[in-house]
Design brief:
The structure is a homotetramer of 468-residue chains. Chain A is α/β, with parallel strands linked by helices and 468 residues long. Chain A contains 15 helices and 24 strands. The first copy, chain A, has 3 domains: 238 residues, Metallo-beta-lactamase, Chain A, CATH 3.60.15.10; 89 residues, Oxidized Rhodanese, domain 1 (3-Layer(aba) Sandwich); 95 residues, Rhodanese-like domain (Oxidized Rhodanese, domain 1), CATH 3.40.250. Chains A and D meet through helix 8, helix 11 and helix 15 of A and helix 8, helix 11 and helix 15 of D. Chains A, B, C, D: One of its GO terms (biological process) is glutathione metabolic process. Chains A, B, C, D: Its EC number is 3.1.2.6. Chains A, B, C, D: Keywords: Hydrolase, Metal-binding.
């Protein structure tokens, strides 16, 4: 029996390929989908089925892309019309050799969400695994806010029912395979277990132990961020996203050309680290470090203007390109040939960002000309505490709140580590703020250097994501 | 939390790397161990611990090899003296960030066998996973015959106790991570589930539902093969195997040189498919197809004489070399440059093997000059049935039973598919049998072509391995 | 200065990328063209120009494919209309930083053939290199037969003039970079020097020392083979070949499906070695070994019916696919999942081919029921000699001459090594010949085993290609 | 005929593999030598000979390393005793199939320097290529200063004789294959042609047109730098360098550990770009950007203390390690796990370097508290001009001239681009200079921004290397 989890790194999206008897199925494929056909080839299997557990909102579905070379059938929940594939409903069965997949309708995250129960009939009629999509994660449950505030309560009630009537009724020993892992924006606080089980979740996932009313109340009031690109993804994944055939090929952009590209509205994305960006960068560029791209590009980049990457040594850009393709940014266009140094070798002015170590901030904490801006997500701030005197705007919402920030002060941005702080600094500089400084190490470094954080209240909401 | 299963293909050996908080441990590492340091590097972790769940007999342990560049501590069960590492016992705890590993002594397969219980204290005190080594597999339990016939009953009783007192008392939702998967020679009939759980095994693994006496009786009478190389592995893995530092570099051997190498006792291994070997091969070579190497080289190759490989296009030999290194065949020396065609371009005589399709055998089934030799394992023959008139000698035991085979007849060997049949044919030809024919497709092809197999009795013993 | 030769293996097609000052040009790009953009990326250069030294007949031009992502201009000789690009003429100059390329019109192989003279103005006004396309090779000159018999004399005269008036007038120290290397079907007998010079060719290339009349006479009478696919290539390369965007993705074809594919006219290509094919193959398949594909597929495959590959272990098929794409076989469709053994595991009948070692043929040389068929090219037969009693039909022409071969005899085919012999055997079996045997080792093995070849006459024509 | 040039990037060391008839030889192999056996494998050749054209001083010879797995014979000039291999002299011949290599003794760079003349006897008795080691390069000739000042005149005279009596007497069409390309520290100003010829060099290499006295005078007075590691290389390459077997495996060093490593004398090498280093770095680290390592590590690193690398994302460190191994730095030990951000996440203080764009320097050119320090090589300064008021110390000599630099001023270092400037800045900071600023873009950026450079005299000495 073939069973493999394919993780799209950083995005923390899980897809699965399973198979037996020469036939395989893929659950929630990503758009750069050759990985699945390669696995099937190694196992001498044909991919005959593609399942969408729900209409994804955080990445472009690869179903159509994968159906093209394989001829596989696309299947999704029947409670919503898709522009492609076939709707399936409760209790429908699909066979792959001795393996059998049974559809469980598990609405709540979306209306048409399904889970898939896997049995290996050659072994037993007991189910072995359940693919829960965005209904149940390790230590978390699916978001119910994305259908809109007006439907949030209803979706939460449906999710409660799906969890308690469909999923938790399975045996404790059933392995749970969710569509996302830790770090995903699709769950408030997904655990970093690679695998979990019904029994382990029932015992440890505190959301599963809530009574229905508590649960719904929690879900209705949960504070979650929705990156703007989610809307685009829902639209694409409903209608059927454009086929790409292969990964785009980035053009080399010379330092001479980049200026005119910027004048034409190109989006310059500096994928280097906070200190690299701070030491010098192209004015107007924004700094989303290479491993932060899947999480933050969707807040700041549009789908029309060409995107040009800036790195120092242009290493492994092929992998970077995948992040853009997975989120539908087919306007990824080029990279600065020669890296950022090509910019300054031409005599161009390099813009800098200030950087402070914790000691620097501590010395200036009471300086009235210093404005401390915390750009972490609000749960993190509430949970972990904050630096005295700091103001808060989430980095993803910064551009909508610029007028709250004084232009005559030195703005010291910080997050929990320094990466999101540098992103925020780049946004401020792009919008004309002159004196912008990033706190290296953020609150992590601050505490490590023995400076205090203020904690006011404890909340149920946990802290998502790793420190970057 | 880092959790990754590293599978050594075909050998079906599972090793695991787990980690948290910047520290990682490897369980049962293989000898070509860079895979672990690469993963640790990608996760920014240091490997600090290496566990041996038991003194392995089917591959060379990579513990010492991995300890060299990492400085990690090697830990194994304390009930036997090893030439390296530190003994650990029941209840000892090891921390990796928030992860905790607890030692369970689970003797039965060997005296010093241990299992490791994993908890993530940042989530819960409930265990999440158990690494069971060779105590419990998916659908199978460990072998108890390898310590010798005299200890078999005692080992079986210990294993029963280990299973029922230590492992099955865990929660149903605990994920089971064994040291072997389907196809391994370390279990009679390991299931091909990639993951399983205590609950699923308790419900479906028929050996776990036996009463103690039934269980012991079954284990004492179980028919299993022990490849001769197991003895060498036990010896190496007890004393500490030699370090290799890197994979050996194969020398190109010219067609001119190969004859003198053979005269000096070199072992010529033809890694091609049955029909490739049948169409022409070097006299005296034995045919272990490239994906059968880990399973059969240990029956036929010695550890002294140089081993030279023969392929047609010499593709991906780097991977082939790994199979030899994993089994300690550091006498792997070279490959025939130019492939088998270099042999016949020199005007050398190519030896052939006969091949028959099922229809050919059916026509000659009653010919008294035809001697049909079934080389499958005995359980397979008993379970699946046999071709009328066929005699049985397991391929791995062929060289000890050559005098049972008539030299004046046409020997038609068969297995279940054709690969082991070709291996058997090559052994016979090497030992001077003149008229040797391999049945392409074996019993699988025979049945597919609608010819009958005779089944005499049903047994509890199941059929291991896939058809090759 | 960037200078790199990119060789398409086996096809022996050379393309070149050169550049300086951030700009690069590619000469005669192949269709799988990412290799050029990767090099340009590593050198921080933009590809701005693409040159076609002539309308190629042996592979699909990659000019349009490469122009798509790079935006580079395509340039070719102006004496013929192309469906794309711009015509250039004698003396036109193109700059890449300090490098200058000068067009020399050098007709003869085709009307619009050009050579390109390279100078590095930062060093000297003396030319450093000349890209001669198909005008001058190492030890050979271009073919003049492809424009048709009626134009052969005129083309030969033009080629003589191009060589002696344009190319040989360059300094002895100028490095010669031709469009093909040894083994190419584009020259009778190209030398295997990787690089050569005007001086070395002037001194050693015997065709350059001929007087005009001798030269023309030689070229008009030269015996060369024209694979049927050349016509398709000329047509595509004139009009502009279809864009592929990326390499096609092969479908896994199950053993169950392959029979119906054959019924629908699919072309089954067995890419294994002669003995592999001989030991068993799918009836109706033809045997072009994997490294012979670029040289022989163009004789036997059509551009309409789907092509399905058969190998044993399906290794490195990605590379194999490139050969098909380079020759425009976009109908390459799939591969037999599980390899040839999947065929016989289903109980299907495997067809065999006889194989003989030299001694077998020697014993039967006078048997009247044996018909010896030599399928080497005629120059090889004339030059190296033949086996007594053998008949000759070139393997590429075999299908047109089947009625010359007796159907009631045992046909023993041979070439110089065994590969083309196996190809010929497969063609005969496909056309219903029953008793077909391939001589392993061919004439090479025959001589190595000390059997005689008969030589009747010496010719000027040399022997192309290596022994396969 | 196999002919392939293997370039060790950045070091600009060329080695060659040539072969025919199943046998190959390697000329001047590097230490990470698997590249040669891989090529030989692909060509079905055995490496039987290894040539050292001279006792190399800029890298560790790979001859012994390559002889180990291949069994090939090592050959070098007989005029000096080596600790390994066999001495060969004028006129000795070595065969590889139809290829013949003839030894020419060509002293001058070293006493035992040899060149190798290649003929392909199957084609002609005319030589096709000459491997000139460090005697003749494209546009340059070998250094004669490395044997010491006292022997410089004599070595120069010998070189003149070798060039004019042995090499230039060859035919114009002979291809010249030197041991170094552009950028190497082994020649003042090697051209960037990938290939050249006797004829092209005779016509364009201005050193070849000098009379003997002029030539010797030029060579005796030529200003060249000798990195300190050359002495170590000569010693190793004479005695036979230690075998490594494989590339070393870097240990992950945690941010917690790095401080104590530094206390124990570890050498911290920050391989990031100038702006990355400027934005924040570990105090005491030196900044040799990843593509500058082969050229500058030999000036600043010792062979005893452990070397630890710092990058941002730890990309492609395997390739970086090769640079250290090639120069014999077997004390390369580890890398900072998590990259530089791991440093500041721990709350550690990050040291910064100032960076100026050209406009910043222009505004402060007359500020008496600013000390401008030009660290380019002296030829570059003389040839290209200098910034008004700047002082000069070559970066490689900086540590010996620290007392010339005022400690109470702001030191603005610059090179021609910004990389060597950042290296110099890191050296100054390591030695306690507080106010250090690097001019981004160096003189290139300065001129590009339309600020003037002062040129005082023209010299024959040309400018080596690219701008970094």
């Amino acid at each position: 029996m073939l069973f493999e989890k394919i993780k799209s790194d950083i995005l923390a999206h899980n897809s699965y390929i399973i198979g037996a008897g020469g036939e395989a199925a893929v659950i929630d494929p990503r758009r750069d989908c050759q990985v699945y056909t390669n696995i099937a080839e190694a196992w001498n299997m044909k991919i005959t089925g593609i399942f969408e557990t729900h209409k994804n909102e955080d990445y472009v579905s690869g179903s159509r892309e994968l159906a093209r070379p394989t001829g596989a059938e696309i299947l999704h929940g029947r409670r919503e019309e898709f522009g492609f594939g076939t709707g399936v409903g409760e209790g429908e069965m699909f066979g792959l050799g001795s393996i059998e997949l049974e559809v469980l309708e598990t609405p709540g995250h979306t209306q048409e969400s399904i889970s898939l129960l896997l049995r290996d009939r050659s072994v037993s009629d007991d189910p072995l695994m359940v693919f829960t999509g965005d209904a149940l994660f390790a230590g978390e449950v699916g978001r119910t806010d994305l259908a809109g505030e007006d439907q949030r309560r209803e979706m939460s009630e449906m999710l409660y029912a799906s969890l308690h009537e469909k999923i938790l009724t399975l045996d404790d020993g059933v392995i749970v395979c969710p569509a996302h892992g830790a770090g995903s924006v699709c769950g408030g606080n997904i655990g970093d277990r690679e695998y979990t089980t019904i029994g382990f979740e029932a015992a440890t996932n505190r959301l599963l132990s809530l009574e229905k009313e508590e649960f719904v109340e929690y879900k209705v009031n949960e504070r979650l961020y929705e990156p703007p690109y989610f809307a685009k993804m829902r639209e694409l994944n409903k209608s059927g996203p454009p086929l790409i055939y292969n990964l785009p090929h980035l053009r080399a952009v010379s330092a001479r050309d980049i200026r005119s590209l910027v004048d034409q509205g190109a989006q310059i994305v500096d994928i280097r680290s906070p200190t690299s960006f701070a030491g010098g960068h192209i004015p107007g560029s924004i700094n989303i470090w290479r491993t932060g791209l899947p999480l933050f590009m969707g807040y700041f980049l549009n789908y029309e203007d060409p995107i040009v990457l800036v790195d120092d040594f242009n290493l492994d850009l092929d992998h970077v390109v995948r992040h853009f393709v997975r989120l539908g940014y087919d306007n990824i266009t080029g990279y600065l040939a020669g890296g950022f140094p090509a910019w300054f070798k031409q005599g161009e002015r390099s813009e800098r960002t200030g950087v402070w170590s914790p000691g620097d901030l501590a010395e200036n904490l009471d300086d009235p000309s210093v404005y401390i801006l915390d750009v972490r997500n609000i749960n993190h701030r509430d949970e972990k505490g904050y630096i005295r005197g700091s103001h808060h705007i989430y980095v993803g919402h910064l551009e909508e709140h610029l007028d709250e920030i004084p232009r005559d002060k030195q703005i010291v941005v910080h997050c929990d580590a320094g990466f999101k702080g540098s992103l925020a600094a780049s946004i401020l500089q792009k919008h004309g703020f002159r004196h912008v400084t990033n706190l290296l190490g953020g609150t992590l470094g601050w505490e490590a250097a023995n400076y205090p954080l203020i904690r006011e209240r404890a909340t149920l909401a946990a802290v998502p994501g790793g420190a970057t």
